[in-house]
Amino acid sequence: MPTTTTRVNHPFFASVWPLLSRVMGRGGMDEHRKALLAGLSGNVVEIGAGHGVMFAHYPPAVTRVLAVEPEPHLRRRAAEAAARAPVPVEVVDAVADRLPATDQSMDAAVFALVLCSVPDPAAALAEARRVLKPGGELRFLEHGRADTPGLVRVQQVMDATFWPRLAGGCHTGRDIVAEVQRAGFAIRTLERYRFPFGGTPFSFHMRGTATRP
Known about the structure:
7-stranded mixed sheet, 35% helix, 213 residues, alpha/beta
């Protein structure tokens, strides 16, 4: 079972993200968060839990959430949110490609606006697959590559220059669905939507469920 003490530190992003996340929630993102977690049960690992915004939405059939968050400022906020959560939540200092869980020990793995920012999405998804039981579910709520050539070019420029440094490692133009499929997951459901509505580099969202064969 891999363990680590992390050295991730994004104080500016950590100070801004809770406020932005709250604004997004009021604008409709909370409904997607609830839908993402609906029907989950058993042991769940949430990868990149941030300040714990997802915790309030876990259904009562979930017996334990292992919440992984490497950024210290966000992790402290997550620990506070865990104390108010409707299900048991353990917040731990770890990174996406070295999860502190044994092989095939989890019923579900959750990524919520995280795969855009991990250094290596393939490694993070491989690690999620390692800890999932056969038939276990991967739930993902992400933003990614635009659907027009012009906006794709804008995303490429942003991702190659200032945006990851400003936004805690976020990349606007990753093809998340392709990453999930390359990691060996079978996608069962997928909804694509624009949030906020319109055509910005951040608008192209998706919510999906996939299984570990």
